């Protein structure tokens, strides 16, 4: 069984927030997953939607049956963290961690076993 993977790297969003969305679509039919992402009010749903559509397009290009595609894997890996400092009173500074994510979506024909 063939699978197609798409990755969006260095998304400026914390992995925790993006994982909330990818957990919704893992194991679902791609049409159902697209509908869920369309009506999910989280910012991460836009990024995951784009990656899912790319994986579907890759499968279609390889002449797979798009009507039989399921989301086999949807995961978010942590990317590099940008470290910034915010000035505070009396000459102190507090660190701010601007996190990034790598969103990975894999689709395949038929549900995953």
If you had to describe this structure to a student in words, what would you say it looks like?
By secondary structure, the protein is an alpha+beta fold. The protein has one domain (3-109): Ribosomal Protein L22, Chain A. It is built from 3 helices and 5 strands. The protein has helices at 15-25, 30-38, 44-61; strands at residues 3-11, 69-78, 82-87, 93-98, 101-109. The termini are close together.
Summary keywords:
about 110 residues, alpha+beta, Ribosomal Protein L22, Chain A, 3 helices, 5 strands, elongated
Q: Could you name the CATH class?
A: Alpha Beta
Principal-axis shape: elongated
How many strand elements? 5
Domains (count): 1
Q: What is the number of helices? A: 3
Structural class: alpha+beta
CATH architecture: Alpha-Beta Complex
Order of helices and strands: EHHHEEEE
Biggest sheet features: 3 strands, antiparallel
Average pLDDT, to the nearest integer?
A: 94
Query: What's the arrangement of strands in the largest beta sheet?
Result: 1-5-2
Ends apart, CA distance between termini: 11 Å
Unreliable stretches (pLDDT < 50, length at least 5) are: none
CATH topology: Ribosomal Protein L22, Chain A
**Cα-based radius of gyration, to the nearest Å:** 17 Å
Helix content: 25-40%
Q: Mind telling me the CATH superfamily name?
A: Ribosomal protein L22/L17
Short description:
With 113 residues, the protein is of the alpha+beta class. 34% of the residues lie in helices and 35% in strands. It has a three-stranded antiparallel beta sheet. A two-stranded antiparallel ribbon has the order 3-4.
